[in-house]
Amino acid sequence: MSKSTDVRIIDAVVSIEEHPFRTPLKFGGRLVEKNRLINVQVTVENGNGDHAIGLGSMPIGNVWAWPSTKVSPEQAEKAMEEFATRVVRLTDIVDDFGHPVDIIYHVSAEYFHQAKVVAELLGLEEPLPELAQLVAASPLDAAIHDAYGKVNEVNSYNALSKDFMNHDLAWYLDEQFKGEYLDKYTSRKPKERMPLYHLVGAVDPLTDADIKERLNDDLPETLPEWIAADGLTHLKIKLNGEDIDWDVNRVLEIEGVTAEAQSKRGCEEWFYSTDFNEKCENVEYVLDFLKRVQEQSPAAYDRIQYIEQPTHRDLKAHSDNKMHAAAKLKPVVIDESLVDYEALLLAREQGYSGVALKACKGHTEALFAAAAAQKYNMFLCVQDLTCPAYSFLHSASLAARVPGVAAIEGNGRQYCPAANRVWAHQVPSMFEITDGTVGTGDLTGFGLGF
């Protein structure tokens, strides 16, 4: 039976917003110099006849979501925009009332077909891969959850119990979750503050010697300047994955620069995560990397909190890439491969010991992954897609409501600060960083919390 809190979508609008990057960001062998956001606004009606508007926003992130030898980055970007528009228009024919999880669960059944339609329409040699589908559809997913909370005057994370949801988790995942709801795997209040993971990109300057010409835009430019200004304690290090000497030396350089900067401000504890962007050929590369870092700097090795997906995202095609040996040394988290519950189970079989939650894969899918990761006692972290403004608040709210997540990645302030200006006035604790943390305790409003 339907509940009075169930909603149906009355109207949905999609728009595109673009912001240039302050400095280029390199990952996966490519430079990214702009942020193109998909914004979705959804109007819903609940069973009592009340109406509310919800918002969702996410960078297209095509270079990350759809690296291809058959489709250019420009083609991929256009295809993801078209897909996002078509997914939003699917809501025109969905007139049933339901919980946001149900609505997205049913709409997502059309993603595969729409991916093929878009490819045919644009004359592409391949359809959108599943990760690109999820990213393009994620603003709609977020907007529905946001509108649902607002129309029912409740924080969306507090609307995940049996009182609000129409099915238990077994309906969506498997019988291990029988009788369980998402409220078991989320918190009723957000964490008050969370450490911020600052990105050290592959082409980012570590010291003054690395800068050819200063931007002089009143923002930090070197790593010591960022550490001093924001009080950073968590650094995410982008690595090559195809050059072991460069990767090891990069970590050692960062350790040396960071140690000096932290000493000046009296900080004795900080952490690293390492991101190879799938470029490692095999687990032996990771093991060699860890061994050499430990031999040359035990302190740097000890500071490595976790390793992001080091090898190819296609787990089935690269089933020989087992992570068991590396996971005995450090948590190895699944990232690009994590597109659904089946992928999480396969990753566990192949030795991955952690899960990277990302709002860009869809709010609903992120909640499912968070529940499964906790069920299997896996390491948890939340990362973003260089998310600025509203999309960063969404990512941070997810991190603040999932038990076990210790820190939040947020590099939009580094590469796309102009997009944050409006929201920084409204939620300054989330954008004005001075002690290395963000004030997630402020994300308690109706809807997604802001």
Can you walk me through this structure?
The protein is of the alpha/beta class and 450 residues long. It folds into 2 domains: 7-166, Enolase-like, N-terminal domain (Enolase-like, domain 1), CATH 3.30.390; 185-442, Alpha-Beta Barrel (TIM Barrel), CATH 3.20.20.120. The chain has helices at 62-65, 73-90, 100-107, 111-122, 130-151, 223-230, 244-264, 283-296, 298-303, 324-327, 341-349, 363-375, 389-401, 412-415, 421-426, 428-431; strands at 7-27, 30-46, 51-59, 194-200, 234-238, 271-275, 304-308, 332-334, 354-357, 379-382, 408-409, 437-438. The strands form 2 sheets. Strands 4, 5, 6, 7, 8, 9, 10, 11 and 12 form a 9-stranded mixed sheet that branches. A 3-stranded antiparallel sheet has the order 1-2-3. Helix 2 (73-90) crosses helix 4 and helix 6 packs across helix 7. The longest helix is centred in the N-terminal third of the chain and has 22 residues, at 130-151. The two termini are 31 Å apart. The relative contact order is 0.14.
